[in-house]
Amino acid sequence: MIDWEEFLDPYIQTVGELKIKLRGIRKQFRKQGRHSPIEFVTGRVKSVESIQEKMSRRAVALEDIEEGIEDIAGLRVMVQFVDDIDEVLALIRQRKDMRVLRERDYVNHKKASGYRSYHVIVEYAVDTIDGPKTVLAEIQIRTLAMNFWATIEHSLNYKYQGDFPDDLRERLEKTAEIALELDEEMRKIRDEIKEAQLLFDPVHKRVSDGVGNSDDTDEFYR
Ligand code: 0O2
Ligand code: 0O2
């Protein structure tokens, strides 16, 4: 038997800490008036039901769960441009508070479904009242277009359990191509967009106007 609540505690802590740290990177870029490679960050701890489903699908024994299920703690970093993914990767690889164990590049090697995203498995230590505890976390890095597609495909997948009718499968393939095209087109006008965004960024503007403001008060523009 496993006490799931106790087992998941360090993962909950990990997701909370990594969300704050990754969002902190965005804040630092904006305060310096630079384009942030991070647009927004979300995170979740996998549900017990979903962990159990994956354990049985992958034939992972209870004693191997910590190494066998790598995405119990999951973070998602959304970026505007494909090139931002490399920048986020460089920032993650250089950090002293986490260690990259594995990388899966579904950006240059999309999955058969059409899914694109860059996955990094990191080792992260949380401090607990019983001492440090090291857990694995999966960080998915993707553009807004990749995220749009994946979110929609994920809901449809939930409904059809991967067994899509042919016409829907074809449409999903087509929309994956369109998302790829969108990323390509955005790349071409990237410099123009970045310049425009920095012009109206309220945090940067106020700081440079000498008024100053805490990023936290600027909810709308996060
Ligand atoms: P707000 O005010 O909605 O922006 P938390 O850790 O409590 O901050 P929570 O509830 O755990 O966040 O949610 P999760 O799933 O980690 O992250 C969801 C956050 O992503 C929400 O922010 C959403 O606003 C933000 N988000 C989702 N889609 C987009 C998007 O397209 N663009 C931007 N910029 N943000 C998005 P918060 O923190 O709940 O606050
Ligand atoms: P969640 O919490 O619902 O997102 P596996 O889970 O066995 O397929 P593996 O090798 O463990 O895959 O890890 P992989 O493929 O690196 O990452 C799995 C996660 O990537 C999934 O988590 C999804 O979040 C995302 N993902 C992978 N392939 C697809 C896809 O075709 N479509 C969409 N929408 N997302 C995908 P989970 O397990 O679904 O959990």
Automatic annotation (TrEMBL):
RelA/SpoT domain sequence ranges: 43-164
Presence of the UniProt keyword Acetylation in the record: no
Family: Belongs to the RelA/SpoT family.
Classification via InterPro entries: GTP_Pyrophosphokinase (IPR052366), NT_sf (IPR043519), RelA_SpoT (IPR007685)
GO biological process, alphabetically ordered: guanosine tetraphosphate biosynthetic process
Organism lineage: Bacteria, Bacillati, Bacillota, Bacilli, Lactobacillales
Subunit structure: Homotetramer.
UniProt name for this protein: GTP pyrophosphokinase family protein
Sections of the chain in a coiled coil: 172-199
Pathway note: Purine metabolism; ppGpp biosynthesis; ppGpp from GTP: step 1/2
Domain of life: Bacteria
SMART domains assigned: RelA_SpoT (SM00954)
Keyword terms, alphabetized: ATP-binding, Coiled coil, Kinase, Nucleotide-binding, Transferase
Species this protein is from: Streptococcus cuniculipharyngis
Keyword Coiled coil: yes
Pfam families linked to this entry: RelA_SpoT
Molecular-function GO terms, alphabetical: ATP binding; kinase activity
